[in-house]
Every structure is written in structure tokens, then in C-alpha cells.
Design the sequence.
């Protein structure tokens, strides 16, 4: 739905997907769901603070994986970092 420009419709579906993944999925799968929901929130003009918190959590989950394994996890970490933008002092 995000790719179709229907972010507002995607938000509840992605929120449910994240809920289902919590506690049962690997950290990278949880981070992927968090980032997808954060993107939908931002694109729909939704809760900006929640979007940032989700992306920050995704970054925190991916950072150790990227440090240990590199490759895919490093690319995912870059994607989240780009979403978050420059650090605010």
C-alpha cells in the first residue's frame, strides 16, 4: 500500500503486523516491521513522534547485527539512519 501512495490505509495493517512479530520474530524482522510502520506514519501525516521512536528502535535492533554480520544488516541500518535524518543536538 505504501508503494501505491495509500499510506493511511497501510498504518493499521502495519501496526498489526508489528504486533504479531513482537516476541516471536527475529530482531531484523521486528526492525523491518517498525521501519515500515514508521514510513507509513510519516507518509500519512500521522504521529511523527511515534514514527521517530519506531525508527530509533529499529536502528537499535539492527546496529549490533550490522556490526557483527555487515552486508544486508548494514544496508538495512543505513536505510533506517537515512529515514531518521541528521542527529538533532
Sequence:
Amino acid at each position: 500500500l505504501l508503494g501505491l501512495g495509500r499510506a493511511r490505509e497501510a498504518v493499521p495493517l502495519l501496526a498489526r503486523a508489528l504486533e504479531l512479530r513482537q516476541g516471536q520474530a527475529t530482531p531484523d524482522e521486528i526492525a523491518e516491521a517498525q521501519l515500515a510502520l514508521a514510513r507509513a506514519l510519516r507518509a500519512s501525516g500521522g504521529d511523527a513522534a511515534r514514527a521517530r521512536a519506531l525508527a530509533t528502535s529499529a536502528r537499535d535492533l539492527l546496529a549490533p547485527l550490522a556490526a557483527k554480520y555487515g552486508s544486508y544488516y548494514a544496508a538495512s541500518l543505513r536505510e533506517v539512519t537515512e529515514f531518521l535524518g541528521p542527529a538533532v543536538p
Q: What stands out?
A: Residues 48-69 form the longest helix (22 residues). The chain is about 75% helix and 0% strand.
